[in-house]
Amino acid sequence: MSHDIPEEKLPEAQDASHGHEVAEHGDPFADPGLPAHEPRRTDIDERAAKRAERQVSLMFIVSMLATIGFIASYVIFPIDKIIYVFPLGHISALNFALGLTLGVALFCIGAGAVHWARTLMSDVEMPAERHAIEADDEVRNDVIEQFKTGAAESGFGRRKLLRNTLIGSMALVPLSGVVLLRDLGPLPEKKLDHTNWNEATPAKPIQLINMNTNQPMKAEDIVVGSLTFAKPEGLEDSDEDFQQRIAKDALMIVRIAPEDIKDAKSRELGFEGVLAYSKICTHVGCPISLYEQQTHHALCPCHQSTFDLSDGARVIFGPAGHPLPQLKITTDEKGFLVATGDFAKPVGPSFWERS
């Protein structure tokens, strides 16, 4: 259903430069055009423009300081430091400092750019008709000219304080990502080359402690075909660094009839057929826990690497590239099994080949 609209109800005709003349077409939904441009205070008052410039530059400077604070937080706050922040409660001091400083750095760059655009860059609206996606030479040249005009109106070249502080803040922010690489962990230095068995010497050996009973082990208590797990004397489950230490120190203790041990060097490192191998797989460091009594094969449950414990723990199947390191053991005057030194090679994955 349609109704005739009296002419006196139609919107008044507008200036041709701002839109179509509604009265001529009789269309109440015609394009009203753009309102007359109203200059901002910064457009007509250079003091206001300078003040806006200082405000934007201050935001960029704060961003730079926040980025520096982000980097400094890695040095100042230890990873395990906990603080109370209302209303968040107890949180990591390092995480709080990193989040706060990086948030301020990014916010100030964004807020400064927005404030710059709203107060100092040109805000004259320039309507353009839609055109084909592929522009012709005339349009491309026009875009280039508009870009040059926009660059000149933005004051990027003329307002050196703005330009330099923006470049400074944008140059510093990527350093946050570089510093984040520290989250991969501290450099291992020589920590992976040795275990805590390294403290053992022939004059001061370290006892092997059964991980199930937490008692010292005697050779006569280990029967042929059995598999037992051991740890160094003095390492307790309640120790703060227990997980870090046991990841390198854990042992597999097996007893094989001496005549069944194929590798002579392996036989020398053991005691009356009792052999002590690292429990850590040389593929990616999984703990080995499966043992076949008849074949003397130890199997890693993660990727099925298989080691022959009767032949120096050499790899007979799977992705592991090296045998399991063996620990030299003997007995003390009381008959308890002890270690007299560290593994001949680092335990775990074969990183040391590339170091």
TrEMBL record:
<keyword id="KW-1015">Disulfide bond</keyword>
<keyword id="KW-0472">Membrane</keyword>
<keyword id="KW-0560">Oxidoreductase</keyword>
<feature type="transmembrane region" description="Helical">
    <location>
        <begin position="96"/>
        <end position="117"/>
    </location>
</feature>
<feature type="compositionally biased region" description="Basic and acidic residues">
    <location>
        <begin position="1"/>
        <end position="28"/>
    </location>
</feature>
<protein>
    <recommendedName>
        <fullName>Cytochrome bc1 complex Rieske iron-sulfur subunit</fullName>
    </recommendedName>
</protein>
<comment type="similarity">
    <text>Belongs to the Rieske iron-sulfur protein family.</text>
</comment>
<dbReference type="Pfam" id="PF19297">
    <property type="entry name" value="QcrA_N"/>
</dbReference>
<keyword id="KW-0411">Iron-sulfur</keyword>
<feature type="region of interest" description="Disordered">
    <location>
        <begin position="1"/>
        <end position="39"/>
    </location>
</feature>
<keyword id="KW-1003">Cell membrane</keyword>
<dbReference type="InterPro" id="IPR045603">
    <property type="entry name" value="QcrA_N"/>
</dbReference>
<keyword id="KW-0679">Respiratory chain</keyword>
<keyword id="KW-0813">Transport</keyword>
<dbReference type="InterPro" id="IPR036922">
    <property type="entry name" value="Rieske_2Fe-2S_sf"/>
</dbReference>
<keyword id="KW-0479">Metal-binding</keyword>
<dbReference type="InterPro" id="IPR014349">
    <property type="entry name" value="Rieske_Fe-S_prot"/>
</dbReference>
<feature type="transmembrane region" description="Helical">
    <location>
        <begin position="56"/>
        <end position="76"/>
    </location>
</feature>
<keyword id="KW-0408">Iron</keyword>
<dbReference type="Pfam" id="PF00355">
    <property type="entry name" value="Rieske"/>
</dbReference>
<dbReference type="InterPro" id="IPR017941">
    <property type="entry name" value="Rieske_2Fe-2S"/>
</dbReference>
<keyword id="KW-1133">Transmembrane helix</keyword>
<keyword id="KW-0249">Electron transport</keyword>
<comment type="function">
    <text>Iron-sulfur subunit of the cytochrome bc1 complex, an essential component of the respiratory electron transport chain required for ATP synthesis. The bc1 complex catalyzes the oxidation of menaquinol and the reduction of cytochrome c in the respiratory chain. The bc1 complex operates through a Q-cycle mechanism that couples electron transfer to generation of the proton gradient that drives ATP synthesis.</text>
</comment>
<keyword id="KW-0812">Transmembrane</keyword>
<keyword id="KW-0001">2Fe-2S</keyword>
<feature type="domain" description="Rieske">
    <location>
        <begin position="274"/>
        <end position="338"/>
    </location>
</feature>
